[in-house]
Amino acid sequence: FTTDELKEYIRKSGRDYIIQGQEECRRSEHSSPHSLDCWLRDNYADYPDRKQATNPLIEDLVETGEFGEGKFRCPDRKKMTMRKGVQIVK
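Request: output the structure for the sequence above.
Response:
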């Protein structure tokens, strides 16, 4: 995927960030459907039942200079839950 594709997806969500959401589970059982992990599983993964949004991937996104790492409100949790993710900075 390209960083432009990811930024477009994030912006369409109405946010300027996306949570990482990496989980060891089947895609159908994932608890954070609006996460980077699910976006990757749904669009790019050869094995969608394996986690995709790994820590090295987050590091690679930050290294582009287009994203910053931080803790952000999870859009899939009813109570205020802060989770690791990336935010568009450029």
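The mean pLDDT is 96.
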